[in-house]
Amino acid sequence: MSAALQKLVRIPAGHAHIEGMLAFPADAQGLVLFAHGSGSSRHSPRNNYVAQVLRDTGIGTLLMDLLTPEEDMDYQARFDIPLLTQRLLAATSWIKDQPDLQGLPIGYFGASTGAAAALQAAAAGGDGIGAAVSRGGRPDLAGAHDLQRIKCPVLLLVGGYDDVVIELNQAAYEQLRCRKALVIVPGATHLFDEPGTLEEVARQAALWFSQYLGKSAGPNG
To answer: In the sheet where 5-13 sits, what is the strand order?
Structure first.
């Protein structure tokens, strides 16, 4: 991947197709797939901000809707972690089949319930996934079995005022057997709306992916 690229893609996923925006800086060192939270979409301003920061540091991004518009109208589907995980894995397989994307290290960025799907997909992907980051996520929903199977480095980011989610992340952190870090962002609530907090999330994520998705890095950095 030498030239900059931005295009809308349509990815087959079982009986459905999911839409996404694939964007690359020139000479990208890796690609991060985003799994958004319930009620959000690939147009999420928060994830788009983080994605732009990643691209500014030389990492490609794929922001996508893991549910079809019809499925997203079903509240229960938004919390169907196995379905979200299947869609993320389908997108990963599609990426690996694209001639101009083959060989790029792959990472996952999950927010809210999307974090559980990202971590389940990381567990299924084994050595094929370079790194994962959770923002205000519910990694506990991935389940202890999958958390313990993850091989790639995992960064958990939580708002300092998000008390319940801090506890859930701490419990998930204890289950992880991979290289890991838990960062509590001071002054932030669940959505990181407070001044400077989303910028800190993006900074931490960019550092993590730059460290572990660099082409010179091994499977675990």
So the answer is: 5-13, 16-24, 60-64, 31-35, 106-111, 131-135, 154-159, 180-185
Over residues 44-76, the pLDDT tens digits come to: 788 899 999 999 999 999 999 888 888 877 767
Task: Decide: 174 and 148 in contact? Cβ < 8 Å.
Answer: no
Q: What is the pLDDT of residue 108?
A: 98
Sequence-distant (≥ 6) Cβ neighbours of residue 189 within 8 angstroms: 159, 161, 162
Structural domains of the chain in order of their starting residue, each with its CATH number: 5-212 (3.40.50.1820)
**At residue 169, what is the residue type?**
N
Tokens 């732009």 locate to 52
* 94, 100 Cβ separation under 8 angstroms: no
- The SS3 call for residue 38 is coil
Rg of the chain in Å (alpha carbons):
16
